[in-house]
Structures are given as structure tokens and as C-alpha cells.
Amino acid sequence: MNRRLAATIAVLTASFLLAACTPERTQLIPEESAVTAAPTGEAIAPEDSPVYQQEVEWSRCGELECATLQVPVDWTDPAGPTVDLAINRHGATDPDARLGSLLINPGGPGGSGLDLTESFVVSAGEDLLAAYDVIGFDPRGVGASTPIACGDAEQIDEFFLTDLTLDTQEQIDAAVASTTAFAERCRELSGPLVENVDTSSAARDMDVIRAVLGDDQLHYLGYSYGTQLGAVYAELFPANVGRMVLDGAVDFLLPAVEQAAGQARGFEGALMNFIDWCRGEEGCPLDPNPERAAAQVRDIALTARDEGYESLDGSPVNGNVMVYGMVVTMYDQNSWVYLQAGLDEVINEGTADIFFQLAGFYLDKDPATGEYLSNSQWAFTSIGCLDAVGDEPTTVASLDQMRAALDEASPTFGWWFASSVGCDGWPWEAKEPVTALEAADAAAPLLVIGTTNDPATPVEWAESLSEQLASSELLIFDGEGHTAYGRSNQCVIDAVDGYLVDGQMPVSGTRC
């Protein structure tokens, strides 16, 4: 079993385009030392911020080069205090063919772009690597950039991993109060940065990276949430958009319930595709009948929620942990073997150690020590809740309505998507929210990519985002899993590299 779990981590690491190691994380402490004073003055336009005048100083960090930039804590005060923004670089392999810099983002929100760079340069096309300096970055509040902090592992677990019962208004109110208390602890530990890790602020940081690297235009490839970041950049800086690829597109302008329903349907569909695959594999523990097999998986998830399982060391596996452990295997079909192994353990041994380990991978948490290896989990919430402008308060009626919609979308996972109050109770909203994509119409052509059986960002989102971005074209990968470039086929690599390197946009609607 230990060998099997070790292999799990190896396969999933490749699946998610994450590097094998992560940079050292430090907790942000005293507010006064969390920021560095920049020149003060009267209010100025963001593009006139002193941070645009800084020079980047590179140093070696393994096979790459690393540097740290400064960006304003609060972009409404562009000449005010600053925080660190960590970047790294893999130089173009053919200086004679070099076109400039290509900024990459792995998604999340809260994912580390520094981690992405090492694996990206292994999976990307040779023509792309010859033409671009690949630039990774940890967005504001994340990882090796000045990070937000929200407490120790026990406090994080209590907030994120507790299974909630939300049947009465009193229970809902208690959950909302818990969200507010969690946010206030983040503010106490992180200072004003936690109020300013929204997507628009991160997009403004990207323009600083573009400028200090000496590029007139931003060339960009973003995965998953990184597509939202790219689209917001195009809205804020349409004239600065160069060649931009949005892979695993998020339609972030959809109402929250519709987004949740889309993902619930996506993971239900991935589960059924897994079941079809498993039925043809030797040792599949599931019933040969697909509907009965789906019921088995559903019962395991609900038993974890209502009664719980144990891992081999006795650590509890509740509903949240079980679902995290299941869905993490659905991001790439190469990981289905580990979903099969986890189900086999539960069905035949009555323990859930594999799902416990898999959940730890999803959460970037060491299952052996219980410590979190990065701040991606609470960065995800802090960024997402700042962006969630205009969400309605949660009530018994609204939650019942959501449950009905999500149960219909996913009989297996719908309850889980409806088992929290979301961002209700988060005290702050983004100061510059993007609620429409209109200015982006003036941007240079963008390439939007969707995968037909993507569970996390359904292909319909790529189609709708492409419709909203008037200058975009749509590329479809017929396949399983989350995102396409670097994990799909040569057709996708040729299409993306042909656009990024040669400027040849594939015909909209091309399928690979």
C-alpha cells in the first residue's frame, strides 16, 4: 500500500503540472513589517506607480532564475506600501528565436506559479520553449510572495474540514459567524493584504511584471482560474494584451449556483466515465451495473459524512476528506487507478487510508504530520470571496433551492457542493471588481481552450467565455481531465504553439 501511495503522488503531480518541490513558505506576521514603504505622494494613476520603475535582479535557484518584485498592497493607493511578488524564469532555449516573455499561471486561485515553471518546461512544446522566457509567479498573498496567513493547521482543519449540518437558520447563522471569525483572524495575521488579494489586483501585478521585464505586450498562458486572471487582465489592459491562451476556461461571470452546478455535473460525469473504465479493469471492486456502481460510491461518501471511516493510523476520514480524496483523482484519467485502489480498500478492508492520503495531496497537506505545505487552501478562499461581489445571504430557503439543483446535477457529490455557506460572512469585497467583459473586446485575439469531459471547468464554460471575449477563438480537446495543453495530445500542442510562436490562430471550433 505504501508503494501504491507513493506512486499516487508521482502520477498526480504530473497530472496537475505541479513541481516536485515547493518553495519555503513563511507566515506573515506583524502588520507593520508585512509591507515595505514606497515613496508617498498624491493619488496617481496605477500605471504611474513607482513600482513600474523598479529593476528586476535575477539570481540562480536550481535550474531556474528567481527574483522578487514589489507591488502595492492596495492598488487604490498605487504609491503606497508594497509587498513582495516572487517570480522565476526559464530562459528561451534559442536566443535567436526569442519573442519575449510568456507569463504562466496554474490556477487555483492560490496555486503557485513558481511550482508550475519546472514542470511546464518539461511538458511544453519545443518551439514555445525556444521562443519565450517562461515566467512563473506566485500571485499576491500566495506562497513565496508575501503570503496571507489564517492560523495554524488545527484552526485551518476546523474551518475547512468540519462537516457542517445546515438545516436551520441558527445553524446557517453559526456557519456565517464562523466565516467572519476566520476572515478576521486572517486580517489579524496578514494585515491589509488579505483585503487586497482579489483577481483585479493580481492582474495589475501582472502588468508590472510585463513592464519590468521590458515587454510591450503581455504574452500569457493561464490554466483554470488562470483563465479568469487572464480575462480580467484583458479587461483592464486591452491594449497591452499580446498572445494569450486561456486553457480550462472559467466563466466567472456565471452566478455562483450555476458555477457550482456546472462543476457538480462535471464530477458526476467524470465518475460515470471512471466507472465505465473500471468495469473493464481486473480487480474492479464495483458492481458491474453502472447505476449500482454509482450508488456504491455515493454510499461510501455519505457514510464518511454520517459515520466516518478511519485511515490506517486512526486519523478520521469524514465527508469532506472523502470527497477531496475522490475528486482529486478525476483531474486526469491517469489517476483513475488510484480511485479504484481507494474504493477497493474501503469496500474490502473497511478503512480509507488511500483517500486520506489523496485528500492530503489535494489540500497540499502532509498526511503524516498534519501540517500544510503551502497556504493555497486559505488563499483560495480569500481570493474567491473577495471576487464574489453581490452574493445573496444564505437562508434555509436559498440553501434548499441550491441543494435541489445540485442534487439533480450530481446525485453523488451534490450534497457536498451545498454543504457550506460559501462566502456569506466574508467581510470584504474587491475594490475593482470585473463584472463584464466589454473593454476586452479591443484586445488582440485570444485563444480559449476547453476539454469535453473536464470535471472542474466544464467545456460549456470555455464556449461561453469565448462568446464573451469578442476577439477570441475556441479550441476543443476531446478527452478526459482538467485542461489540455501539456497533458493531452500533439494536436493541442501544435495549435497552441502555432499561435503563441507563429501567430497562426486555429480556426474557431477546431477539435483535437
TrEMBL record:
<keyword id="KW-0378">Hydrolase</keyword>
<comment type="similarity">
    <text>Belongs to the peptidase S33 family.</text>
</comment>
<dbReference type="InterPro" id="IPR029058">
    <property type="entry name" value="AB_hydrolase_fold"/>
</dbReference>
<keyword id="KW-0732">Signal</keyword>
<feature type="signal peptide">
    <location>
        <begin position="1"/>
        <end position="19"/>
    </location>
</feature>
<dbReference type="Pfam" id="PF08386">
    <property type="entry name" value="Abhydrolase_4"/>
</dbReference>
<feature type="domain" description="Peptidase S33 tripeptidyl aminopeptidase-like C-terminal">
    <location>
        <begin position="416"/>
        <end position="512"/>
    </location>
</feature>
<dbReference type="InterPro" id="IPR013595">
    <property type="entry name" value="Pept_S33_TAP-like_C"/>
</dbReference>
<protein>
    <submittedName>
        <fullName>Carboxylesterase B</fullName>
    </submittedName>
</protein>
<dbReference type="InterPro" id="IPR051601">
    <property type="entry name" value="Serine_prot/Carboxylest_S33"/>
</dbReference>
